[in-house]
Design goal:
five-stranded parallel beta sheet; Rossmann fold; 14 strands; Helicase, Ruva Protein, domain 3; alpha/beta
């Protein structure tokens, strides 16, 4: 879309010169021979840029500037002034003008000034659209669920979004902890500030301290230049510490100090740097248990869980499964550019009976895969991985499920659930509704049979 420019000057020669200089660049151009005419045009048409002379009778360029920014706040205004009246241009800049130039000016100089003004406006517009898109993507209204457990989460996000208090989000892998953290940030008064994430489990122990607090050149072997840490990157915004239980005890003490004092020192520096950061931490472990077993500092735990949020596993909010399924169907059909698909009644029945060891992430992955792979408008159980059928007592959409014993189906279910939970036997037993001892006995039996 061509940029729209309004040229305002009561000097016909100057006005026509600017119009001719800009016409060859393909802009949509309008002109006004007075401030009064300019105000009438601005009231009924939108512009990307207005070039206005300052010295005009009755309605001055400053009047045009004020009116333009009041009616069209996203419009850029550049003022034209004669040599020797720079003070007027400075006043205009204080009132919101983006730039000024003095007469006379060459076409090349004018072209550069106009291009710079329009490029800046384009960047601002794109930035606003991106922030709106991010805000929409992580708006808590777009977190899917209507179960009582999720309703409480939505209410909590709404109540705490603008608070600077630390938040601890607990829950199994795949329950949506990071999405909630982002929703809190993008619904807060920090939404236009940075949202910085650090996955504490993905970094070697020797790098965590530098990643958090930054370092100066020469602070350690390999530190060939200074580096800004995540705290400084997130200044004014939010820092998400994902899987915080993985931070080593020695660094936990330093983290606690930064959270309490709101200041830090980079490695290798004695200079104190103030930071204004809201901390949101997540953990798929029971931090209270980690504290009792002396793997996590109790003072840091209490400092983090000022506002605790416990994300329920999907198996404890199965009433949300149909809603989530429809949400993911629409999302991936739209992404793939294919007509909307539906789920067969049997799929919904199986989904509602499945334990979902991978939680919402597992459901989303299965639906994404089926939308991409299947050519059917109605997705059937055969369009999904076998573990769905195994976990619910079926294998396909037909009623003939002969040939497989209940014992074999149970064995497959146990192995699949173990695999989905990284072979954590305690968690697997809880999901299956059996005791760890029963699970151990069954696994021993399977080994003897193999």
């Amino acid at each position: 879309m061509k940029s729209r420019i309004l040229v305002v000057d009561d000097d016909a020669y100057v006005r026509e010169f600017i119009i001719e200089a800009l016409k060859r660049l393909g802009y949509q151009l309008e002109q006004a021979d007075s401030g009064e005419t300019a105000l009438e045009i601005i009231a009924r048409q939108e512009f990307d840029l207005i070039l206005t002379d300052l010295k005009m009778k009755k309605v001055s360029g400053l009047d045009v500037l004020k009116a333009a920014l009041s009616i069209q706040p996203d419009c850029r205004v550049m003022v034209i002034t004669a040599f020797g009246t720079i003070d007027n241009a400075v006043e205009a800049m204080k009132l919101g003008a983006c730039d000024y130039f003095t007469k006379p000016i060459t076409p090349d100089e004018l072209e550069i000034l106009v291009k710079n003004a329009l490029d800046y406006k384009r960047l601002v517009t794109e930035n606003k659209l991106l922030k709106k898109e991010l805000a929409d993507s992580y708006s808590y209204e777009n977190l899917v669920g209507r179960s009582p457990a999720m309703t409480k989460v939505f209410e909590l996000i709404s109540n705490i979004a603008n608070s600077p208090s630390t938040v601890l989000i607990s829950g199994e892998t795949g329950t949506g902890k990071e999405i909630v953290a982002r929703a809190i940030h993008f619904n807060s008064d920090r939404a236009d500030k940075p949202f910085i994430k650090m996955n504490c489990a993905a970094l070697p122990e020797g790098l965590i301290e530098s990643e958090l607090f930054g370092h100066e050149k020469g602070a350690f072997t390999g530190a060939v230049k200074s580096s800004v840490g995540r705290f400084e990157q997130a200044d004014g915004g939010t820092l998400l510490l994902d899987e915080i239980s993985e931070i080593p005890p020695a660094i936990q003490a330093k983290l606690l100090r930064v959270i309490q004092e709101r200041e830090l020192e980079r490695l290798g520096s004695g200079q104190t740097i103030p930071v204004n950061v809201r901390i949101i931490a997540t953990s798929n472990r029971d931090l209270k248990k980690e504290v009792s077993e002396r793997r996590f500092r109790d003072d840091l735990y209490f400092r983090l869980q000022v506002i605790p949020i416990d994300m329920p596993p999907l198996r404890k909010r199965l009433e949300d499964v149909p809603l989530l399924s429809e949400h993911f169907l629409q999302k991936y059909c739209h992404r793939e550019g294919v007509p909307s698909k539906t789920l067969s009644e049997k799929v919904i029945k199986y989904f509602m009976s499945y334990a979902w060891p991978g939680n919402v992430r597992e459901l989303e992955n299965y639906i994404e895969r089926s939308v991409v792979v299947s050519n059917s408008q109605e997705l059937k159980i055969s369009d999904f991985p076998m573990e769905i059928a195994i976990g619910t007592g079926g294998f396909d959409d037909s009623e003939d499920e002969s040939g497989t014993t209940i014992a074999e189906m149970e064995r497959r279910l146990i192995y699949k659930t173990l695999e989905a939970n990284d072979f954590n036997k305690a968690q697997t037993a809880e999901i299956l509704g059996i005791t760890p001892r029963t699970l151990r006995n069954k696994l021993n039996d399977y080994r003897r049979q193999e």
